[in-house]
């Protein structure tokens, strides 16, 4: 038997090497001639990779230049199911207003005016990361959720956003979820905001490609293979999200973990990445690009090109200024290259161009009285 085997193994190699070489050449030739250079699609799966075929069968309309990893397939399958699943429509749909603040809310009185008379159509959640807020409005009493310290740009910001979403999801009436800060104010009356957010089929999440140092320059290779540079997006953290997307965020573990460990300040080489500006814009760009607006309903003025956006004080708050904020029907995204390209997104709502903004930031607390006056005495906003 030993002899037979040895005989077999010593005799066999030359033939098998020739056969193998022949097969390899054949495959290479077929590959070269069957792959159109202009569209390197995953079609090549059809004859040598059953894994690639599985990927293509699952996502027939998507283009993947590589095989998906196991966690990636698991994640995409869950997201795909959730996207096909229509959330239960309750008879009393509400908008969840989620406030991220260190402590007391300087514009609580203004928000009170905003909510007054609309009981049953909203719920409020407050994540106070530093100290227990003192409330001046009964709508805010007892609305704090458990919170953890949050420092600027840290991943704790994303954790707090998820905590707010999870708490707000507990109420099945909440159909749309808005994230606001202590320096955000409403620039529209409640009914307008309510219809705008509820009778829509998208989430208002800003997402754009910034090739500059504060965009793609923050990408860290450890996020590969699941997060590729070509998919890396940037956007404001102040989102609004439909219920379906809020559930998808809570279900996500793969991308959440990738950003948690590889997109944070002070990474290797002194590089900074801020998950609150990249996780949702990248995640939704990859998993449901048609389901997001790509702009945010919260106005902010970055035109001064500084580290922080322009902040409005009492003297800046006039009827004409607020009116102007409510009139924009396209939203700018400024890239961080030396040229600072401004990309404009038209604000489409149910197929036609509409005003972009429902809220605005940032405002100094001294703007409160003037904002109250305008809000109360102006019906046209
Ligand atoms: C959206 O547009 C369609 C077609 O123009 C219209 O029938 C429908 O009522 C609109 N929906 C809302 C909520 O305005
Ligand atoms: C949302 O509605 C618009 C207009 O009715 C439609 O064109 C678009 O495909 C819808 N998007 C989603 C994600 O359902
Ligand atoms: C948002 O941008 C993506 C491309 O990144 C595009 O596919 C999608 O249609 C855009 N969303 C809307 C509502 O236009
Ligand atoms: C509305 O305007 C009137 C007249 O200028 C003023 O007395 C009142 O205080 C204003 N309301 C608020 C809430 O500022």
Automatic annotation (TrEMBL):
Signal peptide (UniProt feature, chain positions): none
Protein's cellular compartments: Membrane
Keyword Transmembrane attributed: yes
Residues annotated as transmembrane: 12-33
InterPro entries, sorted: BC10-like, Glyco_trans_14
GO cellular component labels: membrane
Topology in the lipid bilayer: Single-pass type II membrane protein
GO molecular function: glycosyltransferase activity
Domain of life of the organism encoding this protein: Eukaryota
Record's keyword terms, sorted: Glycoprotein, Glycosyltransferase, Membrane, Transferase, Transmembrane, Transmembrane helix
Name recorded for this polypeptide: Core-2/I-branching beta-1,6-N-acetylglucosaminyltransferase family protein
Organism from which the protein derives: Vicia faba
């Amino acid at each position: 038997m030993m002899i037979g085997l040895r005989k077999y193994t010593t005799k066999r190699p030359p033939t098998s090497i020739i056969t193998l070489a022949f097969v390899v050449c054949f495959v290479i030739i077929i590959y070269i001639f069957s792959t159109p250079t202009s569209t390197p699609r995953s079609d090549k799966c059809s004859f040598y990779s059953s894994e690639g075929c599985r990927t293509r069968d699952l996502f027939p309309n998507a283009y993947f230049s590589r095989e998906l990893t196991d966690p990636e397939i698991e994640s995409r399958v869950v997201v795909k199911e959730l996207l096909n699943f229509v959330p239960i429509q309750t008879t009393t749909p509400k908008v969840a207003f989620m406030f991220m603040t260190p402590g007391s809310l300087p514009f609580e009185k203004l928000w009170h005016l905003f909510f007054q008379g609309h009981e049953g159509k909203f719920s409020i959640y407050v994540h106070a990361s530093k100290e227990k807020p003192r409330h001046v409005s009964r709508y805010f009493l007892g609305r704090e959720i458990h919170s953890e310290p949050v420092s600027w740009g840290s991943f704790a910001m994303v954790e707090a956003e998820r905590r707010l979403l999870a708490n707000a999801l507990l109420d099945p009436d909440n159909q749309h979820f808005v994230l606001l800060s202590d320096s955000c104010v409403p620039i529209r009356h409640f009914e307008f905001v309510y219809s705008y957010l509820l009778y829509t089929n998208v989430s208002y999440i800003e997402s754009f490609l910034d090739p500059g140092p504060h965009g793609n320059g923050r990408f860290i290779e450890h996020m590969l293979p699941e997060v590729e540079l070509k998919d890396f997006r940037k956007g404001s953290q102040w989102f609004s999200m439909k219920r379906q997307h809020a559930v998808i965020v809570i279900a996500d573990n793969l991308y959440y973990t990738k950003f948690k460990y590889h997109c944070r300040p002070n990474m290797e080489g002194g590089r900074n990445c801020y998950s609150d500006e990249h996780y949702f814009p990248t995640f939704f760009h990859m998993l449901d690009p048609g389901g997001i607006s790509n702009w945010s309903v919260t106005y902010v003025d970055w035109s001064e090109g500084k580290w922080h956006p322009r902040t409005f004080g009492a003297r800046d708050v006039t009827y004409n200024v607020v009116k102007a904020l409510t009139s924009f029907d396209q939203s700018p995204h400024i890239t961080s290259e030396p040229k600072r390209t401004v990309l404009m997104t038209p604000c489409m709502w149910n197929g036609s161009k509409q005003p972009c903004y429902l809220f605005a930031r940032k405002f100094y607390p001294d703007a409160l009285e003037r904002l109250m006056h305008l809000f109360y005495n102006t019906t046209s906003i």
